[in-house]
Amino acid sequence: MPFRQHPDDGRHPGSAFDRKTRYMVVAGIFRAAGRRVDSTHAIDAIRTESGSGRLTDLWETPHNLLARLATVDHKALGIRYIVTACVFLALGGLEAAVMRLQLARPEAHLLSPETYNQLFTMHGTTMMFLFAQPVLSGFSFYLTPLLIGARELAFPRLNTFSYYVFLLAGIFLYASFFVGQMPDGGWFNYTPLTEARFDPGYNIDFYAVGLLFLGISTVVGSVNLIVTIFKLRAPGMSIDRMPVMLWSSMTMSWSVIFAMPALTVALVFLELDRRWGFAFFGIARGGSPMLWQHLFWVFGHPWVYIVFLPATGMLSMIIPTFSRRPLVGHTFVVLATVATGLLGFGVWVHHMFATGLPQVSVGFFSAASMTVSIPSAVQIIAWITTMWHGRVKLTTSMLFAIGFIVQFVIGGISGVMTAVVPFDWQATDNYFVVAHLHYVLAGGTLFAVFSALYYWFPKMTGRLMDERIGKASFWVMFVGFNVAFFPMHILGLLGMPRRVYTYAPGLGLDVSNMLSTIGALVFALGTVITLYNVVQGNLAGDIAGPNPWGGSTLEWAAASPPEPYDFARMPVVHSRDPLWDNGVEAGPAYDEARLTPRTSPLDAELEAAIELPDQNVWTLVISVALLGFFTGVLMRVAWLMVVAGVITLISMACWMWPAQHRVLHTEV
Amino acid sequence: MAARAYPINEEQRLPAPVTPRREVGWWAMALVCATEAAFFAYLLMSYFYLAAASSRWPPIGVENPRLRLPIVMTVLLVTSSGALYWGERGIARGRQGRLRIAIIVTCLLGAAFVTLQAIEYRRELQQMVPGAHAYASIFYTTTAFHGAHVTFGLLLLLFTLARAFLGHFDERAHLGVKVTSLYWHFVDVVWLFIFTCLYLSPRWW
Fold it and tell me: Most A CBs within 10 Å: which of B27, B57, B143, B180, as the mutation test of the A interface?
């Protein structure tokens, strides 16, 4: 382990260490002295261009409305992603709040059963598809180029396209609200309940077609991230020097590549069955309703990790910064991340234990599901050890990170419990499962997103949020969350089924339900406090400076907010925590065109500088044309499908003409 | 673990030889093929899942799919891949004409494939409609999605052909050709799997 000096203080962070570490630190001092490198000047040179303003001219989005709309700037798009996802979070949260009000008292009549069905379906669909994945992708799109020392994602226009498809698909799904036919089959939408015979309205069609549309955005976004992380890392950022967040967003993206098609196939089958008379899921004509469940969960379980792994990656960035030392067990955390992603494909049947599958197969998937706890535990132990051996600063961001760990451990334990088949038979479709999944996804992912928001807000806006308000927000949220969701474990054990709009009095469910509703409202209040903090910080927060937290990774070498070109001179990296051990040098400026270095996938050796495209109106045309196409599919209007399809193809041709990035330099 | 030395602080030099490494565009198409491969894998898994769940496959009253046309179609597609590969090798040596001829031949073979598929559909549809039973549904869905991919491949080839006639490609820079041919070869390989599973496998049990 090389010597790592923190800019805030002269003391090396491992001072309480054993003899071996001290030896390594001394060796590090000699190495650092021998190299005679000081990155301070390099970082200054990297941050902002001096004089000419050429890079700004090249990279700044022009000041007109169309260019603003079609911008390819990953920073603007990343923020749009995050803001849009948070709007959907608010909608999903509102739906949850209304449901909790309905459930506060037994036999309440606030909602009809039909409305309740639509609300819990849209709540789940919104949170899983329109909030969790997009917000994490938003952070990845914003941060990836900054973390790897590049100026853009590998396919900037694809990023614009992917954002607009996400936005329009979200609007498409919520259009169902205005015709009063929101999806009502639950977020996993089991057949035969969702066949046209039992659910003849447009409800399920909005779900099926909307998610097909959204899938395009998710897949192209993942392609973009994988290629960017493989090919655009700064020279010297070999694969063992990649920050953990890149590993987690890459694992997420690979999971999307292989999991998303299963959902696509399932949705295509469903829509063909419902509207075109096909026979995939109906028993009468040789189909099988179980086919839906298999296809959905082959997609669905990897998806659960898709909305969870990037959150752990962000935590592995935040915890070391506020513990003032490098992450303990970096390699093991990376391996655990990848292992979790792989295992995610081998556990889908644990959602189907109660469907009467053969005992052998159930036993296999039970064992596989318990195996997942091993890599998760590796990550948690690495974070705890990092804090244990560091000097923890309890900022708001760090509080949210610790809240994540606490709640994720509770959710993990209830997860291992439900992996045990006999217990699962008791817990299936009752509130125990609701408690489990909210501890992992709300207590986990959502807290990690808040932690990340507090951590990277200064980078995105150049201003700090108020720490006092932030901490208040955390405590309100933490208490509210646990009051809302812990009683659900007990409700489940008492046998209260999920997805039922009310319950009878006198079953021992009244107090816990009331408590849970109160907790949910407190939780909501906590998020509103942070919303206020975001607005207030954006308008009048203290100026942050480039590295307010003393972080170690390259995004903190850029200005806050970063310049349009991200880096004035291309960074060259010599270590895993380049800002802590003088591991960064200033490379060439690459200011002849919109250039960024392309490097080899493993060793990050410079191959060439590639030119990246700027904004293009076809990205907008094609997104709208696709909206037209999927509206045609929904309404079964043939001419609309044909016209929109032809426009889509023509826009694709225009977009790709000419298809190449010119290769301008090569210096190896 | 010292980083390799780069001439980073020297004057920037322009231009320099193209490296033989893969361009980012090639990587993106490879990933698109990976996700499409998964898509077809799930279709074929559904096929076998439905087969395993039914007592007789294909169901009573439906014959095994006939092989004569699909074999011709297979030969057409494999030949087209060969032709395109020949053209790609040609442009790697700067031979514009060879690339253009190769793409035209590939397009003709691909169009012949789609035409034969339409003829096959007309015959099969007399025997069974897609909604008749699960077998018909999965058969038509899988082959139709593949047909749509071939059709999209043809459009991509025509796009590349237009660029080839405008002289966009030379021996150093022909990413457009590489990407198109990667997609085309991929669609051909998918056909081999579909042919094996949908046309041959029912004869094995």
Answer: B27
